[in-house]
Specification:
Distance between the termini: 51 Å
Number of helices: 12
CATH class of the largest domain: Mainly Alpha
Radius of gyration: 24 Å
CATH architecture of the largest domain: Orthogonal Bundle
CATH topology of the largest domain: Helix Hairpins
Number of strands: 0
Number of domains: 3
CATH superfamily of the largest domain: MazG-like
Strand content: under 5%
Structural class: mainly alpha
Largest sheet: none
Helix content: over 70%
Length: about 260
């Protein structure tokens, strides 16, 4: 623990030095919460990527990059007299203790994981009420990836009964939204087309929820499959001394099909 304390203090001091108005790094000094937020999201995804690839040797570095984002935000807040790193650590510690009364309180630990999830949601509902978040959808973070936020919004609505009871009804809605997208394709209004496309994506997320599929994970899998197969196309063309831009779509389609067959063999 002493090493962790010392290294955390060292990181906080380094960040303060980088932000020093007189002697710090010009780039770091220019940043604010809004400009750093995209990096925070990016670093969280890189942590997830390392875990997905089981790149355990890379994980400490990726977690360090993510920790830097917390320290960066805390330093900017310290400079403005809002809060500091200790407040951040205290807030999450207090929250964990409050949300685990069966560990840190007098509640029984003898409960299922499902019951713990229900208790957790009840505690969070009380926290939202204390913050005057009265609406069912209040508190669902705007900065979440869009598919993830769609699932969270739908889950919140489902808790109060606003949900299709059967998957078939979701599939019917997908067909309806698809028809509306096709109709909008002939429109001269790009905003309307984007709106209909968004509606279809939202219902697809709902289908994933009903099928108990994580849409972000499913799309990551599809991305990985596309990458593998396209790289197979490039490798096959390279063996012929060519690049994709020097081939035809028909040739690349045939190589794509060959890659599919090879994966299933």
């Amino acid at each position: 623990m002493s090493d962790a304390t010392a290294e955390t203090r060292r990181l906080i001091d380094i960040m303060a030095a980088l932000r020093d108005p007189q002697t710090g790094c010009p780039w770091d000094i220019e940043q604010d919460f809004a400009s750093i937020a995209p990096y925070t999201i990016e670093e969280a995804h890189e942590v997830a990527d390392a875990i997905t690839r089981q790149a355990w040797d890379e994980l400490p570095g990726e977690l360090g990059d993510l920790l830097l984002q917390v320290v960066f935000h805390a330093q900017m807040a310290t400079e403005q007299g809002m809060f500091d790193f200790a407040d951040v650590a205290r807030a999450i510690s207090d929250k964990l203790i409050a949300r685990h009364p069966h560990i840190f309180g007098d509640e029984s630990r003898d409960k299922s994981a499902e019951q713990q999830v229900r208790d957790w949601e009840a505690i969070k509902a009380k926290e939202r009420a204390a913050k005057a978040e009265r609406g069912t959808l209040d508190g669902v973070a705007l900065g979440l990836p869009a598919l993830t936020r769609a699932i969270k919004l739908q889950n919140r609505a489902a808790r109060v009964g606003f949900d299709w009871p059967a998957t078939e009804q979701v599939l019917h809605k997908i067909r309806e939204e698809t028809a509306e997208l096709v109709a909008a394709k002939g429109s001269a209004d790009p905003a309307h087309l984007a709106e209909e496309f968004g509606d279809l994506l939202f219902v697809m997320a709902n289908l994933a929820r009903h099928l108990k599929i994580d849409p972000e994970e499913a799309l990551r899998g599809a991305n990985a499959k596309f990458t593998r197969r396209f790289q197979s196309i490039e490798a096959a063309l390279a063996a012929q001394g060519r690049r994709p831009e020097e081939s035809t779509l028909e040739e690349m389609d045939a190589l794509w099909d060959a890659a599919k067959v090879a994966e299933k063999a």
